[in-house]
Amino acid sequence: MSEASTTEPTADDLFGPDNLPYGVYTTPDAPERPRIGVRLGDRVLDAGAAAGLLNLLEAPDAGLLTAPSLDPLLAAGRPAWSRVRAALRTAVTDPDRLARVTEAGLLLPLSGVTMRLPFTVADYVDFYSSEHHATNVGRLFRPDGEPLTPNWKHLPIGYHGRAGTVVVSGTPVVRPGGQRRPPGAEEPVFGPSTRLDIEAEVGFVVGTPSRLGEAVPMDGFRDHVFGLCLLNDWSARDVQAWEYVPLGPFLGKSFATSVAAWITPLEALEEARTAPPERTHPLLPYLDDTAPGARDDGPGHGYDLRITVRLNGEIIAEPPFSAMYWTAAQQLAHLTVNGASLRTGDLYASGTVSGPEPHQLGCLLELTRNGRDPITGGFGKRTFLEDGDEVTLTAWAPGPGGGRIGLGEVTGRIEPAG
Amino acid sequence: MSEASTTEPTADDLFGPDNLPYGVYTTPDAPERPRIGVRLGDRVLDAGAAAGLLNLLEAPDAGLLTAPSLDPLLAAGRPAWSRVRAALRTAVTDPDRLARVTEAGLLLPLSGVTMRLPFTVADYVDFYSSEHHATNVGRLFRPDGEPLTPNWKHLPIGYHGRAGTVVVSGTPVVRPGGQRRPPGAEEPVFGPSTRLDIEAEVGFVVGTPSRLGEAVPMDGFRDHVFGLCLLNDWSARDVQAWEYVPLGPFLGKSFATSVAAWITPLEALEEARTAPPERTHPLLPYLDDTAPGARDDGPGHGYDLRITVRLNGEIIAEPPFSAMYWTAAQQLAHLTVNGASLRTGDLYASGTVSGPEPHQLGCLLELTRNGRDPITGGFGKRTFLEDGDEVTLTAWAPGPGGGRIGLGEVTGRIEPAG
């Protein structure tokens, strides 16, 4: 396994005043009172109290930060998102103001709070938008056929997942039970999954809803999507393999999907925007991000997010989000082109992020070639996850002035089947 | 097309005091004040006001009926469901009490109110549990292969659908746009779906939640599921055919799913319980409803629901729910066997209900053999739905004393693509 390729940046480097991701936390003395926090280094700012103390926001914006979840902020729309972010930036960049919130005890050590699921997940959709991942999986499962299905280059393939089992980073993941058919067997057996995997992904959080019957075009992306977060779409490959024909993944995915505790607003990621890979097939107009005007507001809707996957603390992969074929703007346009409405809190994920290189693969299925080539490290040999294994995704993106924007980590430890 | 095989029963026959389904309605003078109603014939009882006037329920039960949706009632659990139902039954069967609520203006004509989506849909899952439907579809799409996939007799196949586009009966359905690949073409085209279909289904509404990591066994069905309703899972067959390999249906289904305005509590359907079809394959223990003890509380978890599908008023099919291979109890056990949690408001649907006979098929795909054999009627010829077409599902089940329990209808009219 490779070592980290750069000196480890500090929390202050990754979560400085140009970042300011939002989360929801509780403190030990008030476990029933969730509060909105903004991360600054390895501290969390009590955002509602700070904005109140400093008198930074007028009604109704002020109420968005004193809510017990991000739901009202998400629903408030892009102009409000900008106003609130500007106010919080003032609070943490002006030394006098920062001193006042610190004196008032509103800047707490992250180690002393418990992070909660920061918003109510409405619908959860998972895409399949890495060409490298889809090609690798296709080669493993259909060695004699075309690795990509005929539709793959024409639309971002996706499916609905279970919103009710989206959990916040740190939540233990119990090894799921399920049906699987052992190789060569006629009949399925029941038991704990023996091929438990990760999927390193990025999730996008919808703020502004849309009406039923209304398609949201690609250039509506920034008005509807509030921000993004790392996401681990845990997968029981044996369960999935037996169940998924003809209606897609179901129980192989629905037992848990972990999201980071911190939602990074798109506004923090302007420097990270990048053009997606060259389009090898002509696209229908609603997905064509090469058409005149489609990139008027920037280089494109790709994001240069550098993801690191750790197994029990050791780096096992470094998938580059910039390699994703389909962008989040295309995914949003596709998701709604049939008139399906968006709700505040809709979450849609990129699909496993994999790059072209062997150390850039976002799941064990690819890293071990479906269990044929175990990976090794201080943790020993692994094909799929063992009980007690802990998987952690981190990432950073280029920020203003050569700085870095860190994404909140998503971590989870496997507990034995119940 | 066949005529209705029996004399049309009246609303009083179908929605008598042994039925009492729950819905949520508004009146023209208070369109922003949804209220819980109970259907009696072609009238709706203002349930919260009636229970208050008659002093029929103590706290906290009384509050369950004054809520603006069924959510608190669903969450209250089976003992509360029984107490509330018993109280409402008293209100409508005791002549003095019925006279008092009538005098108080609490029994309104159904034609004067607007029905609303009665509960907040948490996750929506759609199964595929009719052997006749799955066999017919398999024969149409894989004429040279086995009609059923190898997993079909071992588990109830299902997938997650879009909860945010579940709409109440009567909501217009806009013809969805989407990608499809015309027969013989290499490249897809974009446009309004030309193969818009219905799926006649029954939906089950979860009341009592379960914890993450906890499997709900089959005999937990009555404790967790509050009731059922008719459901039409509108499907764009051309969109679905192009998109669904390898991750299942997505935009072909997500534009709209219609549910009846009335949720029939399971308690009203005790007489309708029936044994499911004989199991042709041995089942794993968590799904084995033939094992000793599995049917201790009754004949089985099938329901004898007689569904009628009308196109522009004419009967085009009469699918029997009793023919479903997999029961709602098995679906619930399967859905949670991997530890996936249930939330109040989870909705899961049976999949298209089809019986063995030609007039018992629950979708146009089967009725017209994938568009090859149009159906005809006063509406002319149809392969798939045309703009302006109205589809209505109704159903009844055997009730106490030879009576009938009607299910609330689900209806929708196709509007042209936007």
UniProtKB/TrEMBL annotation, chains A, B:
The keyword Transit peptide does not apply. Its EC number is 3.7.1.2. Pfam families: FAA_hydrolase (PF01557), FAA_hydrolase_N (PF09298). Mg(2+) binds at D233, K253, T257. It is an enzyme of class 3 (hydrolase). Residues 1-21, 172-191 are annotated as: Disordered. One of its GO terms (biological process) is L-phenylalanine catabolic process. Its cofactor is Mg(2+); Ca(2+). Residues 19-118 form the Fumarylacetoacetase N-terminal domain. Keywords: Calcium, Hydrolase, Magnesium, Metal-binding, Phenylalanine catabolism, Tyrosine catabolism. The keyword Hydrolase applies. GO terms for molecular function: fumarylacetoacetase activity; metal ion binding. Substrate binds at Y128, R142, Q240, Y244, T352. This is fumarylacetoacetase. It comes from Streptomyces calidiresistens. The gene is fahA.
